[in-house]
Amino acid sequence: MMYEGHPTPYFLSGYSALSCIRKALDQAGKKSVPSILDFACGHGRVLRSLAANFPEATLTAVDSNKGGVDFCAKAFAAKSVYSNFDFSNLGV
To answer: Distance between alpha carbon 48 and the CA centroid of its chain, in Å?
Structure first.
């Protein structure tokens, strides 16, 4: 839903998120993480960068967009969690 035929801004947003996460990990003295939760994952705009850079991490994709979550599960081997607007019913 975020991709509008312009790959550069789409992929740059994922790289930007990865850069922020890398800086936070550096500050914490860490190089990797065991798991990643991508809340509001959409179709993996950020998750694709995270999956490529943290191949050992267990991925969880969460969104109210079932098609997006299903795509992330298939493309990135992420655990699927279907959200809704009542966050008390996430079932995580």
So the answer is: 7
Helix (H) or strand (E) holding 69: helix 66-76
- Sorted by sequence, the CB contacts under 8 Å of residue 2 that are 6+ apart come out as 10, 13, 42, 43, 45
Question: What tens digit of pLDDT does each residue of 24-33 get?
Answer: 999 999 999 9
3 state DSSP class of 54: coil
| pTM of this structure | 0.83
Integer angstrom CA distances of residue 24 from 32, 47, 74: 11, 17, 28
CB 40, CB 17: distance < 8 Å = no
- Say how many CA atoms lie within 13 Å of 35 toward its Cβ: 6
